[in-house]
Amino acid sequence: MGRVDGYLETERLMLRRFTDGDVELLAGLDSDPEVMRFLTGQPTPRAEIERVVLPEILKAYGDHPQLGTFAAHQKADGEFVGWFGLQPTKEPRTVDVGYRLNRVAWGKGYATEGTKALIDKAFAELGMERVVADTMAVNHRSRAVMRRSGLRFVRIFHEHFDDPLPGTEFGEVEYAVDRRTWEAGRRA
């Protein structure tokens, strides 16, 4: 892990930019059907990671140098645990936060730790006014992470999918926090 690619450190995690050499890490992550359950419902083919997923991640660094998808490693042993993302949205000064973690990293508080750190960075360093996140309404684990990270329920909405996943009928949920609420929470 070159220091030059370091993006963010938390108590237990180091986030860095992905590189061309990270196909295996992403392929391993996306090959677990449980990891993909509320995303696509199936593993992502390796060829798609090589030709589409990773090139899009790398291109985004050029388009939005402070944002993107970042590889997360345990500081203790360098083990890859998944990724966290801070993505631009259509709204000005609003970013979308998200994550995808290997199953072995579940239940350890990493999702909340990384998400909170990205929310803090969005407001404290990047001058954002709002951070949003969304997931399937039935994805209760991710919803709990959003709440623990300081995001608040905004709305439930429905999107059309040609090949909907089980649970899609219950809709998607959006959570968000604005700068004023975040600042008030820091003072509390």
Task: Put the structure in a nutshell.
With 188 residues, the chain is an alpha+beta fold. 31% of the residues lie in helices and 28% in strands. The protein has an eight-stranded mixed beta sheet, with helices on both faces.
Tell me the name of the CATH homologous superfamily.
Gcn5-related N-acetyltransferase (GNAT)
Structural class: alpha+beta
Q: What's the architecture, going by CATH? A: 3-Layer(aba) Sandwich
Number of strands: 8
**Could you please say which CATH topology applies here?**
Aminopeptidase
Please give the count of helices. Answer: 5
Major beta-sheet overview: 8 strands, mixed
Tally the structural domains.
1
What does the radius of gyration come to? 16 Å
Q: Which CATH class applies here?
A: Alpha Beta
Largest sheet, spatial ordering of strands: 1-2-3-4-5-6-8-7
Low-confidence stretches: none
Q: How much strand?
A: 25-35%
The residue-averaged pLDDT reads 90
- Distance N terminus to C terminus? 36 Å
Helix content: 25-40%
Provide an overview of this structure:
The chain has helices spanning 23-30, 46-63, 110-124, 140-148, 179-187; strands spanning 6-9, 13-17, 68-74, 80-88, 94-101, 130-136, 152-157, 172-178. It is an alpha+beta fold and 188 residues long. α1 (23-30) packs across α2 (46-63). It is globular. The mean pLDDT is 90.
